[in-house]
Amino acid sequence: MGKIRCVGVLTSGGDAPGMNAAIRAVTRSAICNGFKVKGIYRGYDGLINGEVKRFTTEDVSNIIQTGGTILRTARSKEFETAAGRKKAFETLKREAIDALIVIGGNGSLTGARIFAEEYDIPCIGLPGTIDNDLFGTDNTIGYDTTLNTITQCVDKIRDTATSHERIFFVEVMGRDAGFLAQNSAIAAGAEAAIIPEDSTGSDQLIKFMERGIRKSKKSCIVIVSESPKCGAIYYANRVNKEYPNFDVRVSILGHLQRGGSPTARDRILASRVGVGAIEALVQGQRNVMVGIRNNEVVYVPIVDAVGKRKPIDKQLIKVLDELSI
Ligand code: F6P
């Protein structure tokens, strides 16, 4: 691989608030460091199909405060195939793009890892996902905004729960990770969180109901991590059957959790890792994800960022348990 002259940037997977701030940071920092920048639209699909545009500083003006992604995004099936990745590499050659910056979550960075193993192209990942499930960074871009959105929603649901003396099961996103559920439960003063990381021990519903009954609370909010089989509806049905004296409702927050203007924290995180991505290329690094740990920019091999499981701090479980008495 020769000298880097032109950097391509794309967003991939689920959109996350702060992705635009990251695109802006990458673009402006690249230009400051003497690189050309090309925006690639619609994630890896756009890379395969050649949807590429030269970016100037003006192309990223007035976007730091906006949700979604100006580059659009996709979950590309074609990029999962060797033939798709070959086409993607041909686009890079045709467009004279020498390095690729991928802003996305687990699946998107896994795609970058495989691509970088097959082709001689430096790939830098930026952690862009509301799920906060990437190893090696304390937070991912979008997570803080979503956490705040969920907290505001649960505050509203609390009014009805209290007034009607109901149990609410509120289902939140997170894919296989409970960061959003556990921390929104703490922030909103919920009575419990049911998360995948805590599912190995006793039945979480029975544990909660028995504590809840002992406390003789009349209304409760339980935050449940999404799950194909054991989501909020599953638990509500069980309470209806096993504890028929309670008035139970379900609220599935859905995609409203992914929208909206990013918080200051997400904008700053996105700006720092965006600048960090260009710094990584200047230093000659490749195939790393840029994260922030203990307030310092870190470079994590992409293989670890996607391959290692990020643990949930067990103290968070204790905090919620003790504060919900
Ligand atoms: O990874 C982000 C995320 O919002 C997950 O929390 C959720 O499981 C998934 O994406 C939903 O994806 P889609 O928007 O494709 O339904």
In words, what does this structure look like?
The chain has 325 residues and is α/β, with parallel strands linked by helices. Helices cover 42% and strands 18% of the residues. It has helices at residues 19-32, 43-49, 82-94, 106-118, 143-164, 179-188, 204-215, 232-242, 264-282, 302-307, 314-323; strands at 6-11, 36-40, 52-55, 99-104, 123-127, 167-172, 192-194, 220-225, 248-252, 288-293, 296-301. A seven-stranded mixed beta sheet has the order 3-2-1-4-5-10-11, sandwiched between helices. It has a four-stranded parallel beta sheet with strand order 7-8-6-9, sandwiched between helices. Helix 1 (19-32) packs parallel to helix 9. The longest helix has 22 residues, at 143-164. The protein is elongated and about 70 Å long. The site of 6-O-phosphono-beta-D-fructofuranose has 10 residues, from loops.
Radius of gyration, Cα only, in angstroms? 21 Å
Low-confidence stretches: none
Helix and strand run:
EHEHEHEHEHEHEHEHEHEEHH
The ligands bound in this entry are: 6-O-phosphono-beta-D-fructofuranose
* Arrangement of strands in the largest sheet: 3-2-1-4-5-10-11
Counting helices, strands and paired strands, the structural category is alpha/beta
How many helical stretches? 11
Helix-residue proportion: 40-55%
Q: Taking all residues together, what is the mean pLDDT? A: 95
Kindly report how far apart the N and C termini lie: 60 Å
Largest sheet: 7 strands, mixed
Shape type? elongated
Strand segment tally: 11
Proportion of beta-strand residues: 15-25%
